[in-house]
Write a structure and sequence with these properties.
With 212 residues, the chain is mostly helical. The chain is built from nine helices and no strands. It folds into two domains: 1-100, Methane Monooxygenase Hydroxylase, Chain G, domain 1 (Up-down Bundle); 111-212, Methane Monooxygenase Hydroxylase, Chain G, domain 1 (Up-down Bundle), CATH 1.20.58.2140. α6 (112-135) packs antiparallel against α7. The radius of gyration is 24 Å and the shape is elongated. The relative contact order is 0.09. The model has no long low-confidence stretch (mean pLDDT 92).
């Protein structure tokens, strides 16, 4: 038995896989960082910076995909899918806040499971956006965003496949449901308060007019 040849071959294969893994892991981490910063930028209203960071995230995730493509075991280990999810979340969050058409998974170059989980995470990000709208008294736009969140929840709930195929999508959608209900409560309270304030103001104006 030529066990020495087996060892030499195994070491060669595993060394190549190890180098690809390190490169893919580095680029995936970069993508996650750029994506998170892109989301923060669009929440702050810095559209140009958000776009620039999202482009960097796209380059990073594409580089990771290329590095790992020859090694399916590593490609599907999970960390690349996490990066794809974060990149999808950043792109979708940007589109929802800006009112742009929603990018599809093929537009972003990511697999469908990370895309769907990114869509769910983006719905979660919309809670922060709705709270910003409430503070700025943009309640009509807040209702529009809440409706989009509701649509996303029901879309994801309609994806009825095993967790192994969807990357734990049901767990993500459970998060969306909780965020949706809290946001609905906050927006309803804000709308009622706004209505009460308008009623009081109108009453004060009528009383002031009667005094005159």
């Amino acid at each position: 038995m030529e066990l020495g040849g087996v060892l030499e071959y195994a070491n060669g294969v595993l060394e190549q896989e190890s180098k690809a893994r390190e490169q893919g892991l580095k680029l995936s981490r970069e993508c996650i960082r750029f994506s998170a910063n892109s989301i923060r930028a669009i929440h702050r209203g810095d559209r140009d910076q958000s776009i620039d960071l999202r482009r960097k995230a796209a380059d990073s995730v594409s580089g990771a995909q290329t590095a790992l493509a020859p090694y399916p075991r590593i490609y599907h280990a999970g960390f690349l899918q996490d990066a794809e999810k974060e990149y999808a979340e950043a792109a979708i969050t940007f589109a929802l806040i800006q009112g742009d058409p929603l990018p599809m998974s093929e537009d972003l170059g990511v697999d469908i499971a990370p895309y769907l989980n990114g869509l769910g995470e983006a719905a979660g990000e919309m809670r922060r956006h709705v709270l910003d709208l409430i503070r700025n008294n943009q309640l009509d736009r807040g209702e529009e965003i809440l409706g989009i969140m509701d649509d996303i929840y029901f879309l994801l709930a309609s994806v009825d496949y095993p967790s192994a195929m969807t990357g734990g999508l049901r767990r993500t959608n459970d998060m969306v449901r909780g965020v949706l209900e809290r946001t609905r409560g906050d927006l309803t309270t804000a709308i009622r308060r706004n209505s009460l304030e308008r009623t009081i103001k109108n009453l004060e104006e009528r009383l002031s007019s009667d005094d005159d």
